[in-house]
Design a protein that fits this description.
The chain is α+β, with helices and mostly antiparallel strands and about 450 residues long. The protein is built from 12 helices and 19 strands. A hairpin with a 5-residue loop joins strand 18 and strand 19. The relative contact order is 0.10.
């Protein structure tokens, strides 16, 4: 009996996924738990393993197509077996619970005149959105389904005062996706998305007009290569644009002398690797110094929720990882409970699994503060963009030996060779004042320059 391979749910708020690549072809043998296709969602890119061993009999969803969770995407069985399951898109409508009830309007109208009381209409209101709109207009089934968007979309809508029903969705059953609502908000900010409450299709007209005046058309020639954005690139673009619109970005840069850390590292890195199986880089020392400063300045380990400030008691440290196909930020959960060794292990593990697409959705969520390391590519420093809903991010510049002015015990100045680098903190000025940001950075700098760390 052929087994169904379904689109998995890669997180609580994930309603759909895009198949970016099939790793097997029809007719190929597959082992149980062997990766057979790659997917991309709003949260994570991942390789999906086969639920059974056998032969890939049929691919129902081609590369590049986005489908709802629980949709059958392939069939696996014995070589030569014919797949028994014919409908590929059957699970997609199942994502909307009220479909069976509302798709049979003709089964109800006949019996309705017999029972005179009003109770029969209740089946029309199982969805969160009522059948009657605020303007008194009866909403169609499609409009009600469109209200049933992911928690992330509803959160963005609430933050920007947007009615989801006003937006023309591009997801399954016209569900409003994250990209739809961000585009709508962007268009509205340019002044093109005028109020469209009474129109029958309010979002379709405003969304079409703003693109022309907001940015000039791009002229291309036959010498240009036009490639569609990958899912992860689209998500990155949306998140970065949203953050620049949301937070009042300010960046402060500090010069740090790593000489004592470099000496401690050089003396112990071989033994550390032999004993623990992980490399001793500069990052665990920076992470440890940051964690200590976050405890001292809780406003940096916080988030803004409307008019409220959320102070996070735990430190969930995001670490940006550059991939060949984009950028991802796995999170070291409860980083404040980890030693230098624990931070080194977590850093190596998350980076390796990010590059091999083996991260779980929960491992890239819930960060309270982020560190990014462009210095590994030679950058002196940058001005990183804050990942929402955090209020700060630290950029680590390249660490190298340079000539600097040093003073001896008598106060005499001289040139010396020191291991130095820059740290740049981008912070949200809505919550963090410049003085507090600089005090936070001064604390990080002081801890690093002392270089007194327990390597256990």
């Amino acid at each position: 009996m052929a087994a169904e391979v379904i689109m998995p749910q890669m997180g609580e708020s994930i309603a759909e996924g895009t198949i970016t690549k099939w790793l097997k072809k029809v007719g190929d043998p597959v082992k149980r738990d062997e990766p057979i296709f790659e997917i991309s969602t709003d949260k994570v890119d991942a390789e999906i393993p086969s639920p059974v061993a056998g032969t890939l009999l049929e691919i129902k969803v081609p590369e590049g197509q986005t489908v709802a969770i629980n949709t059958i995407v392939a069939m696996i069985g014995e070589a030569g077996e014919k797949p028994a399951s014919a409908p590929a898109a059957a699970p997609a409508p199942a994502a909307a619970a009220p479909v069976p009830a509302t798709l049979k309007p003709e089964a109800k109208p006949e019996p309705r005149p017999a029972p005179a009381p009003a109770p029969p209409p209740p089946p029309a209101a199982p969805a969160p959105a009522p059948p009657i709109s605020a303007t008194g207009r009866v909403e169609s089934f499609e409009e009600r389904v469109r209200q049933r968007s992911s928690p992330l979309v509803r959160k963005i809508a609430a933050e920007h005062g947007v009615q989801i029903g006003e937006i023309e969705g591009t997801g399954i059953h016209s569900r409003v996706t994250k990209n739809d609502i961000l585009s709508y908000i962007e268009n509205r900010k340019t002044g093109a998305a005028a109020p469209a409450v009474a129109a029958a299709a309010p979002a379709s007209v405003p969304a079409a007009e703003p693109s022309a005046p907001s940015r000039p058309a791009l002229a291309t020639t036959d010498r240009d290569e036009v490639v569609a954005m990958s899912k992860i690139r689209k998500i990155t673009a949306e998140n970065m644009t949203l953050s620049k619109r949301t937070s009042a970005h300010v960046t402060t840069v500090f010069h740090v002398d790593y000489t004592n850390v470099a000496r401690l590292r050089d003396q112990n890195k071989q033994a550390f690797l032999a004993k623990n199986g992980v490399k001793l880089t500069y990052l665990p020392f920076i992470f440890r110094s940051v964690i200590q400063a976050l405890k001292e300045f809780p406003q940096v380990n916080a988030s803004i929720d409307g008019d409220n400030i959320v102070y996070h008691k735990d430190v969930h440290l995001g670490m940006a990882v550059a991939l060949d196909w984009g950028l991802i930020v796995p999170v070291i959960k409860n980083a404040d409970e980890k030693s230098i060794l624990g931070l080194a292990r977590a850093t190596q593990d998350l980076a390796e699994r990010a590059r091999s697409k083996r991260l779980k959705p929960e491992e890239i969520q819930g960060g309270t503060f982020t560190v990014t390391n462009p210095g590994m590519f030679g950058s002196l420093f940058g001005t990183p963009i804050i990942p929402q809903p955090q209020v700060a991010i630290l950029g680590v510049g390249t660490i190298e030996k340079r000539p600097v002015v040093v003073a001896d015990e008598q106060g005499n100045d001289a040139l010396g060779i020191r291991t130095v680098g820059y740290l740049a903190l981008s912070f949200d000025h809505r919550l963090i004042d410049g003085a507090d940001a600089d005090k936070f950075m001064a604390s990080v700098k002081k801890t690093l320059e002392k270089g007194e760390f327990d390597l256990g």
